[in-house]
Design goal:
Number of helices: 1
Strand content: over 45%
Distance between the termini: 34 Å
CATH architecture: 7 Propeller
CATH class: Mainly Beta
Largest sheet: 7 strands, antiparallel
Order of helices and strands: HEEEEEEEEEEEEEEEEEEEEEEE
Number of domains: 1
Structural class: mainly beta
Length: about 300
Protein backbone atom coordinates (compact mmCIF):
# COMPACT_ATOMS: atom_id res chain seq x y z
CA UNK A 1 0.00 0.00 0.00
CA UNK A 2 2.80 2.41 0.92
CA UNK A 3 4.56 1.63 -2.36
CA UNK A 4 1.33 2.38 -4.29
CA UNK A 5 0.96 5.74 -2.56
CA UNK A 6 4.59 6.56 -3.25
CA UNK A 7 4.05 5.88 -6.96
CA UNK A 8 1.01 8.17 -7.03
CA UNK A 9 2.97 10.94 -5.33
CA UNK A 10 5.80 10.51 -7.82
CA UNK A 11 3.39 10.72 -10.76
CA UNK A 12 1.82 13.86 -9.34
CA UNK A 13 5.23 15.44 -8.75
CA UNK A 14 6.36 14.75 -12.31
CA UNK A 15 3.14 16.03 -13.86
CA UNK A 16 1.86 12.71 -15.25
CA UNK A 17 -1.19 12.78 -12.97
CA UNK A 18 -2.29 16.15 -14.36
CA UNK A 19 -4.39 16.56 -17.48
CA UNK A 20 -3.50 19.66 -19.45
CA UNK A 21 -6.50 20.59 -21.58
CA UNK A 22 -6.32 21.85 -25.17
CA UNK A 23 -7.04 25.49 -25.96
CA UNK A 24 -9.54 26.69 -28.56
CA UNK A 25 -8.84 29.83 -30.57
CA UNK A 26 -11.37 32.02 -32.36
CA UNK A 27 -9.15 32.81 -35.35
CA UNK A 28 -10.50 35.63 -37.52
CA UNK A 29 -7.76 35.38 -40.18
CA UNK A 30 -9.19 36.71 -43.45
CA UNK A 31 -7.71 33.89 -45.50
CA UNK A 32 -9.26 31.12 -43.38
CA UNK A 33 -11.39 32.09 -40.35
CA UNK A 34 -12.06 29.09 -38.13
CA UNK A 35 -12.03 27.61 -34.66
CA UNK A 36 -8.73 25.92 -33.89
CA UNK A 37 -8.23 23.51 -30.99
CA UNK A 38 -4.56 23.62 -30.07
CA UNK A 39 -2.30 21.25 -28.17
CA UNK A 40 -0.78 23.23 -25.29
CA UNK A 41 2.03 20.68 -24.98
CA UNK A 42 3.28 21.66 -28.43
CA UNK A 43 5.59 24.64 -28.00
CA UNK A 44 5.49 25.48 -31.71
CA UNK A 45 2.02 26.66 -32.76
CA UNK A 46 3.08 27.97 -36.16
CA UNK A 47 1.16 26.93 -39.26
CA UNK A 48 4.18 24.88 -40.26
CA UNK A 49 3.62 22.52 -37.32
CA UNK A 50 0.49 20.53 -38.14
CA UNK A 51 0.82 18.54 -34.91
CA UNK A 52 -0.13 21.62 -32.88
CA UNK A 53 -3.72 21.60 -34.25
CA UNK A 54 -5.85 18.86 -32.69
CA UNK A 55 -9.12 19.86 -34.41
CA UNK A 56 -10.43 22.71 -36.49
CA UNK A 57 -13.80 23.87 -37.75
CA UNK A 58 -15.40 26.18 -40.26
CA UNK A 59 -19.09 26.19 -41.29
CA UNK A 60 -18.64 24.19 -44.49
CA UNK A 61 -17.29 21.30 -42.39
CA UNK A 62 -20.86 20.85 -41.13
CA UNK A 63 -22.65 21.58 -44.39
CA UNK A 64 -23.39 25.18 -43.38
CA UNK A 65 -22.93 27.33 -46.47
CA UNK A 66 -22.56 30.77 -44.90
CA UNK A 67 -19.03 32.09 -45.38
CA UNK A 68 -20.19 35.72 -45.16
CA UNK A 69 -21.78 35.21 -41.75
CA UNK A 70 -18.58 33.60 -40.46
CA UNK A 71 -16.11 36.40 -41.20
CA UNK A 72 -15.41 37.31 -37.55
CA UNK A 73 -15.65 34.29 -35.21
CA UNK A 74 -15.65 35.72 -31.69
CA UNK A 75 -16.17 32.83 -29.30
CA UNK A 76 -16.52 29.07 -28.89
CA UNK A 77 -17.24 26.76 -25.96
CA UNK A 78 -17.31 23.00 -25.45
CA UNK A 79 -20.28 21.55 -23.56
CA UNK A 80 -21.83 18.14 -22.85
CA UNK A 81 -25.58 17.71 -23.35
CA UNK A 82 -27.08 14.32 -22.46
CA UNK A 83 -23.75 12.55 -22.79
CA UNK A 84 -22.76 14.06 -26.15
CA UNK A 85 -20.21 16.81 -26.59
CA UNK A 86 -20.95 19.89 -28.68
CA UNK A 87 -19.18 23.05 -29.72
CA UNK A 88 -21.22 26.24 -29.63
CA UNK A 89 -19.73 29.14 -31.55
CA UNK A 90 -20.59 32.67 -32.65
CA UNK A 91 -19.43 35.15 -35.26
CA UNK A 92 -19.78 38.90 -35.06
CA UNK A 93 -21.14 38.74 -38.63
CA UNK A 94 -24.16 36.77 -37.44
CA UNK A 95 -23.60 33.04 -37.82
CA UNK A 96 -24.34 31.05 -34.65
CA UNK A 97 -23.92 27.27 -34.61
CA UNK A 98 -23.97 24.17 -32.46
CA UNK A 99 -22.11 21.18 -33.90
CA UNK A 100 -21.03 17.82 -32.56
CA UNK A 101 -17.51 17.49 -31.25
CA UNK A 102 -15.49 15.96 -32.72
CA UNK A 103 -17.84 14.67 -35.46
CA UNK A 104 -18.86 18.20 -36.67
CA UNK A 105 -22.48 17.14 -37.27
CA UNK A 106 -24.76 20.16 -37.33
CA UNK A 107 -27.26 20.33 -34.47
CA UNK A 108 -28.42 23.93 -34.95
CA UNK A 109 -27.46 27.09 -36.79
CA UNK A 110 -28.95 30.45 -37.73
CA UNK A 111 -27.67 33.77 -39.02
CA UNK A 112 -28.98 36.79 -37.11
CA UNK A 113 -27.02 39.33 -39.21
CA UNK A 114 -24.00 41.43 -38.30
CA UNK A 115 -25.77 44.54 -36.98
CA UNK A 116 -25.99 43.23 -33.40
CA UNK A 117 -22.36 41.97 -33.21
CA UNK A 118 -22.67 38.82 -31.11
CA UNK A 119 -19.69 38.69 -28.77
CA UNK A 120 -20.32 35.79 -26.37
CA UNK A 121 -22.03 32.41 -26.48
CA UNK A 122 -23.19 29.63 -24.17
CA UNK A 123 -24.86 26.24 -24.65
CA UNK A 124 -27.40 25.64 -21.89
CA UNK A 125 -28.06 22.25 -20.29
CA UNK A 126 -31.43 21.90 -22.07
CA UNK A 127 -29.82 22.44 -25.49
CA UNK A 128 -30.89 26.04 -25.92
CA UNK A 129 -28.30 28.72 -26.73
CA UNK A 130 -27.65 31.94 -24.82
CA UNK A 131 -25.76 34.79 -26.42
CA UNK A 132 -24.70 38.39 -25.78
CA UNK A 133 -24.58 41.13 -28.43
CA UNK A 134 -22.57 44.30 -27.83
CA UNK A 135 -23.99 46.61 -30.51
CA UNK A 136 -27.45 45.12 -30.11
CA UNK A 137 -27.29 45.66 -26.35
CA UNK A 138 -29.06 42.44 -25.45
CA UNK A 139 -28.86 38.93 -24.03
CA UNK A 140 -30.97 36.28 -25.74
CA UNK A 141 -31.86 32.64 -25.25
CA UNK A 142 -32.66 30.89 -28.54
CA UNK A 143 -34.74 27.71 -28.69
CA UNK A 144 -31.97 25.71 -30.35
CA UNK A 145 -33.24 22.55 -28.66
CA UNK A 146 -36.44 22.60 -30.72
CA UNK A 147 -35.26 22.45 -34.34
CA UNK A 148 -32.10 22.69 -36.45
CA UNK A 149 -32.97 26.25 -37.50
CA UNK A 150 -35.24 27.45 -34.69
CA UNK A 151 -35.09 31.26 -34.47
CA UNK A 152 -37.45 31.88 -31.54
CA UNK A 153 -35.88 33.67 -28.57
CA UNK A 154 -36.35 35.43 -25.24
CA UNK A 155 -34.51 38.73 -24.74
CA UNK A 156 -33.15 40.84 -21.89
CA UNK A 157 -31.75 44.28 -22.71
CA UNK A 158 -28.22 44.93 -21.40
CA UNK A 159 -26.08 47.80 -22.68
CA UNK A 160 -22.93 46.62 -24.48
CA UNK A 161 -23.52 42.99 -23.51
CA UNK A 162 -20.30 41.05 -24.09
CA UNK A 163 -20.65 37.57 -22.66
CA UNK A 164 -22.86 34.99 -20.97
CA UNK A 165 -22.07 32.08 -18.66
CA UNK A 166 -24.35 29.41 -17.20
CA UNK A 167 -23.93 28.75 -13.46
CA UNK A 168 -25.30 25.28 -12.58
CA UNK A 169 -24.85 25.66 -8.82
CA UNK A 170 -26.87 28.88 -8.64
CA UNK A 171 -29.09 28.10 -11.65
CA UNK A 172 -28.56 31.54 -13.16
CA UNK A 173 -27.16 32.96 -16.37
CA UNK A 174 -24.42 35.50 -15.67
CA UNK A 175 -23.93 38.30 -18.18
CA UNK A 176 -21.54 41.22 -18.49
CA UNK A 177 -22.36 44.68 -19.84
CA UNK A 178 -20.69 48.10 -19.89
CA UNK A 179 -20.39 48.43 -16.12
CA UNK A 180 -22.87 45.85 -14.83
CA UNK A 181 -22.59 42.18 -13.95
CA UNK A 182 -26.06 40.63 -13.88
CA UNK A 183 -27.69 37.36 -12.90
CA UNK A 184 -30.60 36.31 -15.10
CA UNK A 185 -33.16 33.66 -14.33
CA UNK A 186 -34.26 31.46 -17.21
CA UNK A 187 -37.89 30.49 -16.78
CA UNK A 188 -40.68 29.12 -18.90
CA UNK A 189 -39.94 26.00 -20.92
CA UNK A 190 -37.29 24.97 -23.43
CA UNK A 191 -39.74 25.73 -26.23
CA UNK A 192 -40.84 29.05 -24.71
CA UNK A 193 -38.11 30.39 -22.40
CA UNK A 194 -38.21 33.63 -20.42
CA UNK A 195 -35.40 35.85 -19.10
CA UNK A 196 -35.80 37.91 -15.94
CA UNK A 197 -33.33 39.93 -13.90
CA UNK A 198 -32.38 38.35 -10.57
CA UNK A 199 -29.54 40.65 -9.48
CA UNK A 200 -27.41 43.56 -10.69
CA UNK A 201 -23.86 44.15 -9.46
CA UNK A 202 -21.99 47.34 -10.34
CA UNK A 203 -18.46 46.67 -11.52
CA UNK A 204 -15.38 48.65 -10.40
CA UNK A 205 -14.50 49.45 -14.02
CA UNK A 206 -16.23 49.96 -17.37
CA UNK A 207 -16.09 48.21 -20.74
CA UNK A 208 -16.74 44.68 -19.52
CA UNK A 209 -15.35 42.23 -22.05
CA UNK A 210 -14.99 38.65 -20.88
CA UNK A 211 -16.73 36.52 -18.29
CA UNK A 212 -15.59 33.00 -17.46
CA UNK A 213 -15.69 30.47 -14.64
CA UNK A 214 -12.56 29.98 -12.58
CA UNK A 215 -12.49 26.25 -13.18
CA UNK A 216 -11.80 24.30 -10.02
CA UNK A 217 -13.35 27.05 -7.87
CA UNK A 218 -17.16 27.21 -8.24
CA UNK A 219 -17.37 30.40 -6.14
CA UNK A 220 -15.17 32.55 -8.40
CA UNK A 221 -15.52 34.18 -11.82
CA UNK A 222 -12.86 35.65 -14.09
CA UNK A 223 -13.70 39.05 -15.62
CA UNK A 224 -11.91 41.42 -17.98
CA UNK A 225 -12.75 45.12 -18.34
CA UNK A 226 -11.36 48.06 -20.26
CA UNK A 227 -8.34 48.58 -18.02
CA UNK A 228 -7.88 45.45 -15.87
CA UNK A 229 -8.46 41.76 -15.22
CA UNK A 230 -10.38 40.65 -12.13
CA UNK A 231 -11.55 37.77 -10.01
CA UNK A 232 -15.07 38.01 -8.57
CA UNK A 233 -16.17 36.19 -5.42
CA UNK A 234 -19.79 35.09 -5.87
CA UNK A 235 -20.30 34.73 -2.10
CA UNK A 236 -19.09 38.17 -1.02
CA UNK A 237 -19.75 39.89 -4.37
CA UNK A 238 -16.30 41.47 -4.16
CA UNK A 239 -13.92 42.13 -7.04
CA UNK A 240 -10.16 41.65 -6.75
CA UNK A 241 -7.88 43.17 -9.38
CA UNK A 242 -5.38 40.76 -10.91
CA UNK A 243 -3.66 42.99 -13.47
CA UNK A 244 -3.87 46.69 -14.22
CA UNK A 245 -3.54 46.10 -17.96
CA UNK A 246 -5.96 47.24 -20.64
CA UNK A 247 -7.51 45.37 -23.52
CA UNK A 248 -7.80 41.74 -22.48
CA UNK A 249 -10.48 40.04 -24.58
CA UNK A 250 -10.49 36.65 -22.84
CA UNK A 251 -9.40 34.97 -19.62
CA UNK A 252 -9.67 31.36 -18.38
CA UNK A 253 -7.52 28.81 -16.58
CA UNK A 254 -6.15 25.29 -16.69
CA UNK A 255 -7.72 23.11 -13.99
CA UNK A 256 -4.63 20.98 -13.42
CA UNK A 257 -2.18 23.82 -12.86
CA UNK A 258 -4.25 26.98 -12.34
CA UNK A 259 -2.36 28.65 -15.18
CA UNK A 260 -4.36 31.52 -16.71
CA UNK A 261 -4.89 31.79 -20.47
CA UNK A 262 -5.45 35.32 -21.79
CA UNK A 263 -5.67 37.24 -25.07
CA UNK A 264 -5.33 40.94 -25.84
CA UNK A 265 -4.50 42.90 -29.01
CA UNK A 266 -0.86 42.96 -30.10
CA UNK A 267 0.67 45.22 -32.73
CA UNK A 268 2.25 42.16 -34.35
CA UNK A 269 -1.25 41.26 -35.57
CA UNK A 270 -1.99 43.82 -38.28
CA UNK A 271 -5.36 42.60 -39.61
CA UNK A 272 -7.37 44.87 -37.28
CA UNK A 273 -7.07 46.76 -33.99
CA UNK A 274 -8.42 44.00 -31.74
CA UNK A 275 -6.60 40.87 -32.91
CA UNK A 276 -3.59 39.02 -31.57
CA UNK A 277 -1.16 36.39 -32.80
CA UNK A 278 0.16 35.80 -29.27
CA UNK A 279 -1.58 33.74 -26.59
CA UNK A 280 -0.42 34.71 -23.09
CA UNK A 281 -0.17 32.43 -20.06
CA UNK A 282 0.33 33.40 -16.42
CA UNK A 283 1.37 31.28 -13.44
CA UNK A 284 3.63 29.95 -14.88
CA UNK A 285 4.22 32.62 -17.51
CA UNK A 286 4.51 31.49 -21.11
CA UNK A 287 3.38 32.36 -24.64
CA UNK A 288 2.40 30.66 -27.88
CA UNK A 289 2.45 32.39 -31.27
CA UNK A 290 0.90 31.58 -34.63
CA UNK A 291 0.23 33.33 -37.93
CA UNK A 292 -3.35 34.21 -37.00
CA UNK A 293 -5.79 36.95 -35.95
CA UNK A 294 -7.27 35.65 -32.70
CA UNK A 295 -9.96 37.38 -30.67
CA UNK A 296 -10.52 34.91 -27.83
CA UNK A 297 -8.94 31.76 -26.45
CA UNK A 298 -10.96 29.19 -24.47
CA UNK A 299 -9.91 26.22 -22.40
CA UNK A 300 -11.32 23.25 -24.33
CA UNK A 301 -13.14 21.57 -21.46
CA UNK A 302 -16.85 20.86 -21.13
CA UNK A 303 -17.27 21.87 -17.46
CA UNK A 304 -19.47 24.86 -16.68
CA UNK A 305 -17.49 25.49 -13.48
Amino acid sequence: MMKFLAVLLLLAATGFAQKIDPIALADQSKDDPRILVMDYNQKDWSRANNKSVLWSWKPSDSGINDATGWMLPNDARLRNIDGKRYMVTASGYGLIAVVGYPDKQKKWSINIGKASNVHGIELLPDGNVAMAASTGGWVRVYTASQARDSAKYAQFDLKDAHNVLWDPSRQVLWSLGTDKLVQLKIGGTSSAPTLTLAKTITMPDTSGHDLEAKLGDPDTLWITTGSATWSFDKRTEKFMMLQKVSGYKSINNQVATGQRIQTRPHTSCTQNSWCTDIIEFFGPDDTRTREMAVYRARLWREDYQ
